[in-house]
Amino acid sequence: MKTLALDTATQSCSVAIIDDGSLLAELTRVDNKTHSRHLMDIINIVCNLADLKAENVDRFAVTIGPGSFTGLRIGISTIKGLAFSLGKPVVGVSSLDALAWQSAQSAYLICPLMDARKKEVYACRYRFKDNELKKDGTEKVASPVEAVRGIREPSIFVGNAVLMYRDHISAELGELAHFAAWGQHTIRASSVAWLSMSGLYRQQSDDVALLVPKYIRKPDAEVKAGANG
């Protein structure tokens, strides 16, 4: 089964195509420009590298959050347009799940952390058992200290917020804190694709019309509107 996956949850923009267990092509770009400027170009490049057209893909996968409000809307709307026009299924994947998947072979507690701005992080905890990634708690937004509070076992941290708050994590946990390799802190679309086929998402597909971002925290515009109301 050929899956085209993309991620636009952070500053990185990643697109990949896998065919069951094989990675056919992948391209990741990191900059401060809006993803709408180059996402379709990256999709076309990856399709050309894989020697495929979008209509030859069996299904689509996309990160649905948490993450950048604007980035998520761009990625999800792009996938919805492709899936709807081609009549193909789509799977929405948690950004934190995707990051955890990139450290899934670890025997430690897996702790992805994503920058949520306002000196907060998006966080969740996972375990890799019986060759499957399993959530050990719920996704939340918290301060870096609160996100690691209560951990009393060796843990591996992964995600862009880890690069920002590594000293805080080390100070709080000491020798219990371990960190993923540098290249693992950026979400890769191939991880999104493979995760969409794993036990967490097996046999799952989402209604294209109902696929929406999962922000966890309300966008600033909604918060301000509520305060003014």
The name of the CATH superfamily of the largest domain reads: ATPase, nucleotide binding domain
Order of helices and strands: EEEHEHEHEEEEEHEHEHH
Q: How many E-type strands?
A: 12
Kindly state the mean pLDDT as a whole number?
91
Shape: globular
Structural class computed from helices and strand pairing:
alpha/beta
Largest sheet: 5 strands, mixed
Q: What is the percent of helical residues?
A: 25-40%
CATH class of the largest domain: Alpha Beta
Outline the low-pLDDT stretches. Answer: 221-229
Q: Write the CATH fold name of the largest domain.
A: Nucleotidyltransferase, domain 5
Give the number of helices: 7
What portion of the residues fall into strands of 2 or more residues? 25-35%
- Please identify, by name, the CATH architecture of the largest domain: 2-Layer Sandwich
Major sheet: arrangement of strands: 3-2-1-4-5
N-to-C terminal Cα separation, in Å? 49 Å
Radius of gyration: 17 Å
Number of domains: 2
